Amino acid sequence: MTELILGMLQQKKLTAYEIQAVIRSRYRNICTDSLGSIHAALKKLLDAGRVAFDEYVEKGLNKKRYSITLEGRKHFFKWLQTPIDVTAVNSSELGKLLQLGTLPEEKRIDVIDATIAKLKMELSALQEVHKYMESILDDEIKQLQESWKSDEEYFSHVADKAKDISLFKMMTLQYGIEVIKFNIKWFEELKEK
Q1: pTM of this prediction?
Q2: Same domain, yes or no, for 111 and 185?
Q3: Residues 87-125: tens digit of each pLDDT
Q4: Do 145 and 184 reside in the same domain of the chain?
Q5: What per-residue string of b and e applies to 94-125 under the rule 16 or more CB within 10 Å gives b?
Q6: pLDDT tens-digit map of 38-48
């Protein structure tokens, strides 16, 4: 989660609640949107000197707006330049698949059917997000570019990358859609076996 937060802070200074809203609306399949987890990740980043914050008052409430530091950028770009390990599956859910043979056949079929149904719901949700993102893509690029003008020094490292950032958001979404399609097909074939 820390690298995801650093990536978000590359593009915009955010409060913890704004980070939560971005994760909830765009990245819920990647990580949790729990405010406790977000605060823990921000503390870890603060302790490492990778983020900083400024405090301000809004409607009588004290708020912290987080930003990425130079150390945070160095760490983020070092992490970003390592190969993407799409084979790293850190899910205890795979243990269910590994042990599924211990259930009676009718229970196995029930689990596989429920898995397929869940995957189809996730696919539908991601396709809706994809459709929505396509409809706002040009506006999002313009909004990014406009917001960056307010603090040109902070955003100088991304000032010419709004289209690339948006492209890779869309490609990541497309990757998720394709993975779910593959999983649906795989579980349907498993059910036949």
Answers
A1: 0.70
A2: yes
A3: 666 566 777 888 888 889 999 999 999 999 999 999 998
A4: yes
A5: eeeeeeeeeeeeeeeeeebeebbeebeebbee
A6: 999 999 999 99
